[in-house]
Specification:
By secondary structure, the chain is of the alpha/beta class. About 45% of the residues lie in helices and about 10% in strands. It has a six-stranded mixed β-sheet, with helices on one face.
């Protein structure tokens, strides 16, 4: 199938296939038919939601999925319910649920906001979340209608509905948790200034591999420092040889030249062995994470583009949202101390 195709063509084919299975519903129908096969339940999720509610935190969902699919997934995640067992009990854990949000547009563009009737899935018009009178019904009384309370379900809209429903005083009061660096994290942080947490499921495997190979990063660091030191010596030797020749330094004898060239050759041999060992050790280490892609957040010894995006736009990141269960709901999270290159040499930081 891929024979004779460029990487750009392969990417385009795969991307179009993924978009198609989202649009035609085949992907979601497969998940809906057997949620337990595709969705991993987190034992910490419900206790976490309960702890957050007890502590006074307000909780909301913003998803691009429409109500029917959202209801299926949340029933399984919260109560393990499928098919006829499904109920609306899971809504009790949330103050606001926004479906069909069209993120990342939700974080910057105004979109029509509809109310969702959870029992039927029917949509109804709203005035910025408030109910509107049905002019065809004699039973509607505009004066008796109250604003929609938090806990209702909506479709579309914009981030303003979250701020208004939750009565937040500042965008930085919100911690938004998502698993898409662009659709969830980048726009909500850059455009709105929300606090953000990125869920990276692969981190669980990454940390397991790092734990099994605890001494390897330090070993690679020391090998690279030693290699750099040898390269520095070689550069000085080459400069001295070239300089002595150019200046015709009488004090630099032919014997001195032969000795220096012999030392330089010995260092070059040592450097070649060390470079080969360093390359093989790094390749073996990266294959521990993935046989082709290697470590998720590294490209060689530098952070990957994905890692740089996490560092720039995610206030926190974790493998599972349920990991928050191991901390107090009122915990204050602080960033690590920043280091400059000279700090690494002084503190011996790998």
């Amino acid at each position: 199938f891929f024979a004779g195709k460029s990487y750009a063509e392969i990417y385009s084919d795969i991307r179009n296939s993924i978009d198609l299975c989202h649009r035609d519903g085949s992907l979601k129908r497969g998940v809906a038919s057997d949620p337990g096969y595709y969705i991993h339940q987190d034992k910490n999720l419900v206790p976490l939601l309960e702890d957050l509610r007890v502590s006074g935190k307000k909780i909301f969902i913003v998803t691009n999925s429409l109500w029917d699919y959202t209801n299926i997934v949340m029933n399984y995640l919260i109560g393990g319910k499928t098919g006829a067992e499904k109920s609306l009990d899971w809504l009790d854990y949330f103050d606001v649920v926004v479906t069909g949000s069209a993120k990342p547009r939700f974080f910057q563009d105004n979109q029509p906001l509809f109310g969702v009737e959870p029992a039927s899935g029917f949509l109804h018009n709203t005035d910025e979340g408030n109910p509107m009178v049905d002019l065809d019904s004699a039973e509607d009384d505009l004066e008796s209608m109250e604003p929609v309370p938090a806990g209702k379900v909506f479709q579309g809209g914009t981030y303003k509905i979250i701020n208004r429903m939750l009565q937040t005083e500042s965008n930085s009061d919100i911690l938004y948790i998502g698993d898409h660096i662009y659709g969830d994290i980048l726009k909500s942080k850059k455009t709105l200034g929300w606090r953000t947490m990125l869920v990276v499921p692969e981190m669980e495997h990454e940390i397991e591999v790092l734990s099994r190979n605890a001494g390897v990063p330090q070993q690679l660091f020391q090998m690279r420092r030693k290699r750099d030191a040898i390269e520095d010596q070689l550069q000085r030797m080459s400069w001295k040889l070239n300089s002595a020749t150019g200046k015709k330094d009488a004090s630099f004898t032919e014997e001195d030249r032969r000795d220096l060239e012999a030392q330089k050759q010995a260092l070059e041999d040592q450097h070649a062995v060390l470079r080969d060992e360093h390359s093989k050790t790094m390749a073996k280490f990266h294959k521990e994470f993935h046989p082709i892609w290697g470590q998720l957040l590294k490209t060689g010894y530098q952070n990957s583009r994905f890692a740089n995006q996490i560092g720039r736009f995610a206030c926190l990141y974790t493998s599972h949202v349920g990991n928050l269960r191991y901390y107090s709901p009122n915990k204050s999270y602080r960033g690590l101390q920043d280091e400059m290159p000279h700090d690494y040499s002084i503190l011996q930081i790998p």
